[in-house]
């Protein structure tokens, strides 16, 4: 079964370019397009896509609110959202990730990265590029806690090792990299990540990274 993709962007030329790239892949099928968030909601209900390629800045309803409604508790289907942002990193991407997006991608990313990102998100994983994630969170450090605020009660539910794993997830490390850093197996890391997500009520690694910054566990700019 091909991965069903909905393209959401207010620029028709960009949608045409994305369609050409995706339709060249046998396992991807573009099932529809939308020029704003309201159209996206209608198309998601009608077409039941697997992945929504979502722009942020659009008329009538922006990508953040559309993402929140598509991935929220009242969601009508299994659609995952992959956010598109510009090279200088859109200030609303953090909000989109908090709203339930499974990751984000730069609009000028190479075609192979776009295709791979859609496959990753469709498989239920988070598209969390370490270098871009750090740049994004550090860029908007002024909107995040300084680290001096009280630690959230939910953080106290984690074991010391789970806190270590959460910090490394926030830095954008993969399971293999975390395993090497902590001298444990990848299976052990996966177990720890699963416990962290369950205890904190988070959807995926992307939301875990945002949580780590917002809670002050990881400070923007820190190594």
From TrEMBL:
Modified residues (4-aspartylphosphate): 55
This protein's record includes keyword Cytoplasm: no
Record field: transmembrane: none
GO annotation terms (biological process): phosphorelay signal transduction system; regulation of DNA-templated transcription
Pfam families membership: GerE, Response_reg
All copies of domain Response regulatory, residue ranges: 4-122
One annotated GO molecular function: DNA binding
InterPro entries found in the cross-reference section: CheY-like_superfamily, NreC/VraR/RcsB-like_REC, Sig_transdc_resp-reg_C-effctor, Sig_transdc_resp-reg_receiver, Tscrpt_reg_LuxR_C, WalR-like
Assigned keywords, A-Z: DNA-binding, Phosphoprotein, Transcription, Transcription regulation
Residues annotated as domain HTH luxR-type: 151-216
Listed name of the protein: Two-component response regulator
